[in-house]
Automatic annotation (TrEMBL):
This is Cortex morphogenetic protein CmpA. Pfam families: spore_CmpA. InterPro entries: CmpA.
């Protein structure tokens, strides 16, 4: 997870901003799925 995204998520949790948490969660799953679709599937931990 990128450092900037981790910082944003922590800030949203500390503020209890549910809208921001949902948005950042969606961003993370989008980032993660795009990253995994571009890598070789022989090593899923990349």
């Amino acid at each position: 997870m990128p450092n900037w995204l981790s910082n944003q998520i922590m800030r949203a949790f500390n503020k209890r901003d549910r809208r921001q948490i949902r948005l950042l969660n969606d961003c993370w799953f989008f980032y993660y799925s795009r990253r995994n679709s571009h890598t070789d599937n022989t090593n899923p931990m990349q």
